From TrEMBL:
<feature type="transmembrane region" description="Helical">
    <location>
        <begin position="113"/>
        <end position="136"/>
    </location>
</feature>
<feature type="transmembrane region" description="Helical">
    <location>
        <begin position="344"/>
        <end position="363"/>
    </location>
</feature>
<dbReference type="Pfam" id="PF00324">
    <property type="entry name" value="AA_permease"/>
</dbReference>
<dbReference type="InterPro" id="IPR004840">
    <property type="entry name" value="Amino_acid_permease_CS"/>
</dbReference>
<feature type="domain" description="Amino acid permease/ SLC12A">
    <location>
        <begin position="114"/>
        <end position="575"/>
    </location>
</feature>
<keyword id="KW-0812">Transmembrane</keyword>
<feature type="transmembrane region" description="Helical">
    <location>
        <begin position="197"/>
        <end position="217"/>
    </location>
</feature>
<keyword id="KW-0029">Amino-acid transport</keyword>
<feature type="transmembrane region" description="Helical">
    <location>
        <begin position="515"/>
        <end position="538"/>
    </location>
</feature>
<protein>
    <submittedName>
        <fullName>Amino acid permease-associated region</fullName>
    </submittedName>
</protein>
<feature type="transmembrane region" description="Helical">
    <location>
        <begin position="303"/>
        <end position="324"/>
    </location>
</feature>
<feature type="transmembrane region" description="Helical">
    <location>
        <begin position="473"/>
        <end position="495"/>
    </location>
</feature>
<feature type="transmembrane region" description="Helical">
    <location>
        <begin position="21"/>
        <end position="42"/>
    </location>
</feature>
<keyword id="KW-0813">Transport</keyword>
<feature type="transmembrane region" description="Helical">
    <location>
        <begin position="550"/>
        <end position="569"/>
    </location>
</feature>
<feature type="transmembrane region" description="Helical">
    <location>
        <begin position="256"/>
        <end position="274"/>
    </location>
</feature>
<dbReference type="InterPro" id="IPR050524">
    <property type="entry name" value="APC_YAT"/>
</dbReference>
Amino acid sequence: MVVSCLLGLINIGSDVALKDILSMAVSGLYLSYLAVGSLLLYRRVCGHIRPSSECEDTTVNVPNAPLIMEKSTLAEDAIQPTGYYNEYDAPPKDELQLNVGGRGATQRRLRNYHVTMIGFCSGIGTGLFVGTGAAYAKAGPAGLLLAYIVVGLVLWCVMQSIGELATLLPTAGSFPHWATRFIDPAVGFSLAISYGYCYTIAIASEVSAAAVIVSYWTDLTPAVVITVGLVLILASNLMSVRFYGETEVFGGAVKVLCFLGLVIVSIVITAGGANNDSIGFRYWNDPGPWTNYNGITGPTGHFLGFLSSFVNASFSFIGVETVVITAAESVNPHHAIPKAARRVTYRIAFFYILGALLIGIIVDPRNPALVSGSDNANSSPFVIAIKEAGINALPSIVNACILVAAWSAGNSYCWVGSRMIVAMTTDHQLPQVFGRVTKKGVPYVAVITAWLFGPLAYLSLGSGGAAQAFTWLLNLSTVAGLIAWATLSFCYIRFHSAMKAQGVSRDTLPWKAPLQPYAAWVGFIGSTIIVLVAGFPVFLKGNWSSSDFVASYIGIPIFIVPIIGWKLFKRTKFVRSAEIDLWSGRLQEGEILVQQRVPRNLWERFVDWLV
């Protein structure tokens, strides 16, 4: 907190050069503090870590048996209990988790509606309300719409794959553990690092964005806004997971209601209800459905515009997949996760695709405000259309919703980052102290560790080297999310291969995702292509920029280098299909005692469908 306060005080000064020097110096001090603290902590507790070779082999290999088994008769020393909640606030029972790399002591307190709204929160954010403006200016109405349809398809494939895995293995290890089990422990280690970094650094991104959003109304010192945002995020994540779930329900409700309101307003504007000027599909005719990217005319310019929007759309969708991380803390993951995988993706695709269509109707892609660079409501295509229609009160309301979206996203990113740290402890890739929990099952050490990246937001308030360094950190985080999509899809491909090699029918699974393994291949190939084309503008004539090239592609070696390092250090091996463990880590059928309330009337059926 001392370093955080220093970073905040830097921005109060008036001398720009002095601020830059102090920002860079304190940044170095802050990172050194993290490094030294982590090293001392590791040396203190490393003696408590057992190498994986010394862990008991509790793998249960029962060919052709259901993957949800009856009550186990294994010896008690092969059972690792974790907190499990059959009722909302009931005392924890022992949940059997076998050979999942360690003990996950988080508690199952998230209800179905929590899981659903977390999916909403992770998928609807500033990317929908603000980020679509720049993409629309580059691609035009048809390019933007097509880009969101294609990326929505890729995301649907990824969600079906990880939804099936999370339903079968709702463990604290989550994403990294799947990579460890189905691909190679080194891949699991690298995925935890890159994915965890992607979300911990995004905490700083969101709170700094909140400071810009507040500037829409007042000249309040941005450092104050950042400090308040960081304190609220830390407080929310140190409460019980139930409290976190309730905050996400609130954030999701605000964003959904805001979007529905924008849909209604957009329809009114299109019909001419605001200023008696019916727009219809005017901008699809003039300037047309496509725009020329970077002055390149013809089909080539249209395709490049689509490709640019394609990349932006992918970044907007990143985060939807985090809903399956709730499996380890869901009251009934066998019911909640398949429901989330089936419905949340459709809803997110609906919101984005409908939003892209409406933007192409109500705003001229040549409007300079779309690329103004503002992170508040001024650059939102919806707000631009509202202002041009002469509706003066709504922009402030939309800006308030964007502020809630930014805080909700930062809150969610801290939660995801902390769970990645917990995942590394369950696979013995970090000291076990990082997995310590409170009486309410909150991994407080992991939460604080993830939150410590948040104060880097103060760097965004400087200029020169400090601000440039912060921009680079953010660019690296976006590519990490796309690499995670590809890796998770490949996890399912390996899982499906193991099922086939070991003669296990998919009919034994608690939930079967449709179109598998083809959907996983689409998710893997599609995500890989997006990663490879993410920095294509630098290859265009006259557009070369070393910094942009590095920012676009450095995420690839950052993912590969930890794999090589962990393999050399631990001498891990690629797991063969016939040797993949398909049995341990499942919830036993007798452990799932939550009674699902059957809808009795039309309203209850609607609510059940909604959440």
